[in-house]
Amino acid sequence: MCKQLFKGLFILSLLFLTVSHVNAQRLKDTTIQKLVSDTTKKKKSPASRAALMSAILPGLGQVYNKKYWKVPLVYGVIAIPVSTFKYNREWYQKTRFAFSAKLDTIQANDALIVRELQPLSTESLKLYRNQFRKNMDFSILGILVAWGLNVVDATVDGHLKNFDINSGLTMSIKPKISSPQTPLGLAISISPNYKKPLPRVNIN
To answer: Taking the model in full, what pTM does it have?
Structure first.
């Protein structure tokens, strides 16, 4: 009877130790995974947020960076290629219609040609049509460039948002003798200029 009791207690102890070990291992794995996920998750910097906002809507990143005065400049720069695109698209449609109307045999279509294009020949209309089409492509490229500059500007301001420009920083330029081959040079040093004395630290 005692042997069976000891045997049962021994088996229960083994089961208890096994379960405890498994639970401890699971807890350890869960903790490691949580630490890894926490370290891999990076908080978005102001620069990335400003870039994303400006990519979605021009000027929004500048508002996020509190550079409100740049918003009219952003839209002013983007408005230039947008207006040229609208102008070239309008005249592209007019010259394309005039070119097709000159080629067909329907006399009623000739009367619909705008007055500026009526004296032109089909060859001239073709050249103007192609030129306006090319100008439309350049205008689209200009819009993309202006949009990209808006994103770059917001990104740079976002980086500078966390850059501490302390008035205590000073820069000095001094002449320096480095070697016989280059006897004279300039040494630039940047050092903090504290107005208040630094606290003393006693090291025992």
So the answer is: 0.59
